Amino acid sequence: MPQIINVIYLCTVVSFIAGLKLLRHPKTARLGNVIAAGGMLIAVVFTVVISVHMNLVLVLVALLLGGLIGVVFAGLVKMTQMPQLI
Fold this sequence. Notes:
Structural class: mainly alpha
Order of helices and strands: HHHH
Helix content: over 70%
Number of helices: 4
Shape: flat
Number of strands: 0
Strand content: under 5%
Radius of gyration: 15 Å
């Protein structure tokens, strides 16, 4: 079981790195954001699933609050400032 845990976390790290690499060009930046966000989602969900003593309500509140803050800031930033946002 520990080997599969390490493999899943390794996949999330690879997705973060691939996402960052794709952020270097405007044409691939959207895909980079999706890949990095997907990796983060997998990491959070998997951590919650394997954890025994975790308050799921706090995790969900943190995810919703972070998502809301991200949506608000993404709406306020001009396209020319997008690299600074990321």
